[in-house]
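Researcher: Here's a chain I'd like modeled. Treat it as a single chain, no partners, no ligands.
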Amino acid sequence: MDKIIFATKNKKKLVEINEILVGTGLEVISMEDAGIDIDVVEDGSTFEENALKKATEIMKVSGKIVLADDSGLEVDYLDKAPGIYSARFAGKETSYSIKNQMIIDKLDGVPDEQRIARFVCAIAVAYPNGDTKVVRENFEGRIAYQPDGENGFGYDPIFYVPEYEMTSAKMSRDLKNEISHRGKALRKMKEVLLANESTSH
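Model: Modeled as a single isolated chain. Structure tokens:
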């Protein structure tokens, strides 16, 4: 199979993706590695729409198989905000330490049972022949009372998973890849890619 382009400039995300796809013979490269530098405007109203738009637009430019994801944090108490605006919450240039603290502040005094949250990940694939497919997975947890942990990125330090009694920023890479929204969505997408690979020969 040709190299697959993943529509991201996030190096940490690319590492996670290749760890999950190890052993499949599928090699994923970034847009930068593929020499593509375009910004796709994420103007969809759902994670699925945004992922599909990114994958399709970059497939048209590259002529290759393209994967794209749109992921974010939904906090039930905040009417599922920041949701699809997770990366842009409080401004795209604002650091995640500030974003995380803002969410904690918005939940000041809110008890455990109302701090329910989830990470959502939609991953789309766009093939040069025009075929597309989108998968979606969730990772359920709660908003912590303070940031904790150095692993991961983004909202991981404030995402507490009761079953493991820790935030996703304290989890080992292997555990996080196994149970996270992106890990589950990538494994589902891996099946789609491998099925397509076997039927295209």
